[in-house]
């Protein structure tokens, strides 16, 4: 090893050392171009020095590298003076000793480029990262084996007098020394030596810590702010935001699923069936329905009987009988209910021999009943010529002003029959030349409920002009007067009409 520059050691002085790398194949790492070596102590912004190759007989070229080494010098305190440390050391006031300063940690970018900083007592070295310093065996440049030119010999440096230095081990930032002189992680979160805000949580990491926010919060400008999850549609139906969280609820008729967000319809009909009769489930609710003949009450749950008979008086022909959930029609005595369930039909008691008439009486069927008619009796001067006719003979002086014949007839009319109504027709059996006929009601029309309307030369119709309420029996004498001017004849015949008005209008 040869020195290119040397001098007296002083505080903070430096010396340039030339290192020699053998150029054999065993040398590891990359090399620079032949004959040049980079300056080991160069920093960013400075060009590395270069040396020309050294030629020697048949020897191979050698490579050199310049390293900057800080030469240490210490000022020892003299009696009565204040103790001070040289550059690269700091005074420890407790022990009174000078402790080395780690420039590799305290000086930013102490070594630049592809150089690595190596701390030394009182200084530091910058060496290539890819070419560690190789220290070959010592060779005397003045021996006979070296035939090349030699650099000028530098005077020997005085041996430095280093003080005894006690250097404690140093741990990286975020670590501390334990009792076994091992660097262990410092839990800043446990020791409350972190700088997290009160709204943040401290999470310890290897050699440090991080400040984070709990679930439901997000970090904004160093503060943990609550996240309003309801704004992002987290819930299917109802959402309530709370600090750091949220809660989902469902509308009535729904239940919250296990995911805590979606809602499912509740089948009220399957779980509790609140309806009295029929329950129909709907989405989110239910409706109650009633059986035919019932109607839903105002509470929407119970059913009450529907009085169909109150809807209309024409629902049944005679009488409507309401029953729970339904109704039926009934007919009075003397009628039967037809297949339509509402109409009544008369029972012909005379035809079915379901009457109480005697053998001498005649059964006459009426609407809803029957009449037992006694045999006719012809009063003087009339004589009976048939079971329904009486005759007054012309040769009998008592018949001069009397109708020639009296014919007995029966008919029935329903109560309250609509009017006007043609109910009976009267007609002459023989028409004589030169004769005309007059029709009139001779007796029985005191209430003026009827009148005769002549419909032809020999016929007329009995018209009912007022409705008659039954049961009632009316007897009318309908007279037909025959007038013949040719033979100067005037005569009459009478039909004694017995009208039986039934009790019911059907």
Automatic annotation (TrEMBL):
Entry-linked InterPro entries: cEGF, ECM_structural_protein, EGF, EGF-like_Ca-bd_dom, EGF-type_Asp/Asn_hydroxyl_site, EGF_Ca-bd_CS, Fibulin_C, Growth_fac_rcpt_cys_sf
The protein, known as: Fibulin-5
Organismal lineage:
Eukaryota, Metazoa, Chordata, Craniata, Vertebrata
Which Pfam families does this entry report, sorted A to Z? cEGF (PF12662), EGF_CA (PF07645), Fibulin_C (PF22914)
Location, primary (coarse class): secreted
- A GO molecular-function descriptor: calcium ion binding
Q: What does the protein in this record do?
A: Essential for elastic fiber formation, is involved in the assembly of continuous elastin (ELN) polymer and promotes the interaction of microfibrils and ELN. Stabilizes and organizes elastic fibers in the skin, lung and vasculature. Promotes adhesion of endothelial cells through interaction of integrins and the RGD motif. Vascular ligand for integrin receptors which may play a role in vascular development and remodeling. May act as an adapter that mediates the interaction between FBN1 and ELN.
Q: List the disulfide bonds.
A: 269-279
Family the entry assigns? Belongs to the fibulin family.
Q: Which PANTHER family match?
A: EGF-LIKE DOMAIN-CONTAINING PROTEIN, FIBULIN-5
Q: Which SUPFAM superfamilies match?
A: Growth factor receptor domain
Q: Which UniProt keywords apply?
A: Calcium, Cell adhesion, Disulfide bond, EGF-like domain, Extracellular matrix, Glycoprotein, Repeat, Secreted, Signal
Q: Where in the cell is it found?
A: Secreted, Extracellular space, Extracellular matrix
Q: Which Gene3D superfamilies match?
A: Laminin
Region annotated Disordered sits at 26-54
Q: Which domain of life is it from?
A: Eukaryota
Question: What processes in GO biological process is this protein linked to?
Answer: cell adhesion
């Amino acid at each position: 090893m040869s020195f290119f520059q040397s001098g007296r050691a002083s505080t903070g002085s430096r010396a340039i050392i030339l290192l020699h790398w053998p150029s054999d194949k065993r040398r590891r790492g990359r090399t620079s171009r032949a004959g040049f070596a980079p300056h080991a102590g160069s920093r960013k912004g400075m060009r590395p020095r270069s040396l020309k190759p050294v030629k020697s007989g048949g020897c191979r070229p050698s490579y050199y590298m310049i390293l900057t080494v800080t030469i240490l010098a210490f000022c020892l305190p003299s009696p009565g003076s204040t103790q001070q440390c040289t550059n690269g050391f700091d005074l420890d006031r407790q022990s009174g000793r000078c402790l080395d300063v780690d420039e590799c940690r305290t000086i930013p970018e102490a070594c630049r480029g592809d150089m690595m900083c190596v701390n030394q007592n009182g200084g530091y070295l910058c060496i290539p990262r890819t070419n560690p310093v190789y220290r070959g065996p010592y060779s005397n440049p003045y021996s006979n084996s070296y035939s090349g030119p030699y650099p000028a010999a530098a005077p020997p440096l005085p041996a430095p007098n280093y003080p005894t230095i006690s250097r404690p081990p140093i741990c990286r930032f975020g670590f501390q020394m334990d009792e076994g002189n091992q660097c262990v992680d410092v839990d800043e979160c446990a020791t409350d030596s972190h700088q997290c805000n009160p709204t943040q949580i401290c999470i310890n990491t290897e050699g440090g810590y991080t400040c984070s926010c709990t679930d439901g919060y997000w970090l904004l400008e160093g503060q943990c702010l609550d996240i309003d999850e309801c704004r992002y549609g987290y819930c299917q139906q109802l959402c309530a935001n709370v600090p750091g969280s949220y809660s989902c609820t469902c509308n009535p008729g729904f239940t919250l699923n296990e995911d805590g967000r979606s809602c499912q319809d509740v089948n009220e009909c399957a779980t509790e069936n609140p309806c009295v009769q029929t329950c129909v489930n709907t989405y989110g609710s239910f409706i109650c329905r009633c059986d035919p003949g019932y109607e839903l009450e105002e509470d929407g749950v119970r059913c009450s009987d529907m009085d169909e008979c109150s809807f209309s008086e024409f629902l049944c022909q005679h009488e409507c009988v309401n029953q729970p959930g339904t109704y039926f029609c009934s007919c009075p005595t003397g009628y039967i209910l037809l297949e339509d369930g509402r109409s009544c039909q008369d029972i012909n008691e005379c035809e079915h021999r379901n009457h109480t008439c005697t053998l001498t009486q005649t059964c006459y069927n009426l609407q809803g009943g029957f009449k037992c008619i006694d045999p006719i009796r012809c009063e003087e001067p009339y004589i009976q010529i048939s079971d329904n006719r009486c005759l007054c003979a012309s040769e009998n002086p008592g018949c001069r002003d009397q109708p020639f014949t009296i014919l007995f007839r029966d008919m029935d009319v329903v109560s309250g029959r609509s009017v006007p109504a043609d109910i009976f027709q009267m007609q002459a059996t023989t028409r004589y030349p030169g004769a005309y006929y007059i029709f009139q009601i001779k007796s029985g029309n005191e209430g003026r409920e009827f009148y005769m309307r002549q419909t032809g030369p020999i016929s007329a119709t009995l018209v009912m002009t007022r409705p008659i309420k039954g049961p009632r029996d009316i007897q009318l004498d309908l007279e037909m007067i025959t007038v013949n001017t040719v033979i100067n004849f005037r005569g009459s015949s009478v039909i004694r009409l017995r009208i039986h008005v039934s009790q019911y209008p059907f």
